[in-house]
Specification:
With 204 residues, the protein is an all-alpha fold. It is built from eleven helices and no strands. It folds into two domains: 94 residues, Orthogonal Bundle (Rna Polymerase Sigma Factor, Chain: A); 88 residues, Winged helix-like DNA-binding domain superfamily/Winged helix DNA-binding domain (Arc Repressor Mutant, subunit A), CATH 1.10.10.10. The longest helix is centred in the N-terminal third of the chain and has 22 residues.
């Protein structure tokens, strides 16, 4: 679960005062959440040879090197910034292992088409857990392609919002910081994205 903002602000204050332990606590307390985010986005073809924990470790080492600069500008909340670094590590891995084209670091990387079957099934469970009829249909293996296709029909921000909320378990404020949207805009877009996804899934 996300930690309290008050606690984070206190650690940031201590870090600005040169407290190395505070820096380490800010980084390490987000390790589990980062691992979840990386697991969700790890390309299926990389899963057999890349350990998400190694990606997270590399991202945290990079974050430690960049932390003085982060404290000066603080462009994003701590977790959103760490998440961006971890995703850049994933992009670098894809480029090296899968000969993927270079993507810009300045924009949110959309990896939804690369979600594994397990990730798609997890998203279906979390989206439709209270809806027993569709849940039973969507959890069948032959329906995963429909979920994936429906995700790809959504706009990029809508797709990313659903993945961040239901799979990465980001809070509304954190999603807003990643997508550069206010909290009310995130809530409206969330409802709209759910409606559109259901409509795509209901199509013959």
């Amino acid at each position: 679960m996300p930690t309290s903002q008050g606690d984070t602000d206190l650690l940031l204050e201590r870090a600005r005062a040169g407290d190395e332990e505070a820096v380490n606590r800010l980084l390490l307390r987000n390790r589990r959440r980062l691992r979840t985010a990386v697991e969700v986005r790890l390309h299926p073809r990389l899963a057999a040879r890349v350990d998400p924990s190694d990606v997270v470790q590399e991202a945290l080492l990079e974050a430690h090197r960049q932390f003085p600069g982060y404290l000066r500008s603080q462009p994003l909340p701590v977790f959103a910034w760490l998440r961006r670094l971890a995703f850049q590590k994933l992009v670098d891995l894809e480029r090296r292992h899968l000969a993927a084209k270079k993507r810009s670091v300045r924009r949110e990387v959309s990896l939804a088409p690369n979600l594994s079957d397990d990730s798609v099934a997890m998203l279906a469970r979390r989206l439709f857990s209270s809806d027993s009829g569709p849940a039973r249909r969507l959890l069948r293996a032959e329906q995963r392609d429909r979920v994936r296709a429906a995700l790809e029909q959504l706009g990029e921000k809508d797709r990313e919002l659903l993945i961040m909320h239901y799979m990465e378990r980001l809070e509304i404020k954190e999603i807003g910081s990643v997508l550069a949207l206010g909290e009310s805009a995130v809530k409206m877009r969330h409802m709209r994205a759910l409606h559109r996804l259901r409509a795509f899934l209901d199509e013959p």
